[in-house]
Design a protein that fits this description.
Layout: H1 2-21, E1 23-25, H2 40-52, E2 56-60, E3 63-67, E4 70-71, E5 76-80, E6 84-88, E7 99-100, E8 110-117, E9 120-125, E10 129-131, E11 136-140, H3 153-163, E12 170-174, E13 179-185, E14 188-193, E15 196-198
Parallel strand pairs: 1-2, 2-5, 3-6, 4-8, 5-9, 6-10, 8-13, 9-14, 10-15
Antiparallel strand pairs: 7-8, 11-12
């Protein structure tokens, strides 16, 4: 019993030490390496706890995680460990309250995976991956045969391509959600290092 008590005190001391050093493991807040379970709330809880205690680093260990919007806070770095992949949710409902009304190109809105507005001393580091799971479908633009239509940019593209034996009518259109991997607005002292972004359906980094 005495040995068990000593072990428990030792473990408690380790967690206390982690908090003092400003290092928080998101696994202690309920994330699951399961792409059917959305771990965003658990990661957010870790970030909020870290910020409330003065800041530091939130570590996401190796594993595949389903995720929607995560908001960074002052003095917090999100560290994506080697072998960690955050997979963006394809469910629009998961981004409620985290869609920007102004997108880019063919995006009417932009959803956020990792975001911050007006924050200081923040970062995303580590050799993990942010996978935004972009989805697109192909469609055919109308053939342009009228000379008047060829004055339009699209018309000129199709006509010029045809002259070189290329059918330029096939295009690709994105489908919602238009997830941006890292979207920061009015932030100061930002460090982004080592992490990889793939298949962004909005901005990779803004």
């Amino acid at each position: 019993m005495k040995h068990l008590l000593s072990l428990l005190l030792c473990i408690a001391g380790c967690f206390t030490s982690q908090a003092k050093n400003g290092v928080y493991n998101a696994a202690d807040f309920g994330i699951k390496a399961d792409t059917t379970f959305n771990s965003a709330k658990a990661i957010q809880k870790a970030i909020d706890t870290c910020a409330r205690n003065g800041g530091g680093t939130v570590i996401v260990p190796a594993g595949d995680y389903l995720c929607s919007t995560i908001w960074l806070d002052d003095n917090v770095t999100l560290y994506l460990s080697n072998g960690c992949t955050l997979y963006a949710s394809r469910n629009m409902a998961d981004y409620e309250g985290a869609s920007l009304q102004r997108g880019a190109g063919d995006m009417p809105t932009a959803q956020l995976l990792i975001g911050a507005i007006g924050k200081k001393n923040i970062g995303v580091e580590g050799r993990g991956t942010i996978h935004c799971r972009a989805h697109r479908y192909s469609y055919q633009r109308d053939p342009v045969t009228d000379d008047h239509d060829n004055d339009r940019v699209t018309g000129r593209e199709v006509r010029n391509a045809h002259n070189y034996g290329v059918d330029y009518r096939t295009k690709w259109r994105k489908t919602a959600p238009y997830t941006s991997a890292i979207y920061l607005v009015d932030c100061e002292n930002v460090l982004l290092r080592d992490s990889r972004v793939i298949e962004a359906n909005g901005w990779s980094v803004h």
